[in-house]
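Query form — protein DUF2065 domain-containing protein

QUESTION: What is the three-dimensional structure of this chain?
INPUT:
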Amino acid sequence: MWQELGIALCLVLVLEGILPFLYPRRWRMAVAHIAQLPERRLRMMGLASMLLGTALLYLLH
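ANSWER: The structure tokens for DUF2065 domain-containing protein are given below.
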């Protein structure tokens, strides 16, 4: 199980690095925009992301 968790973490890092590598200026602007969002909206976005990821894992597994 620990090996799969390590693989998943590595894939997250690769995926997270794609946008800053390909579009650094746009990525910087997006991060600045996200930093200005209200905390409640950020929490809802995080919750939606976790639920979507969990649902996709369930469907794929």
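ADDITIONAL NOTE: The radius of gyration is 15 Å.
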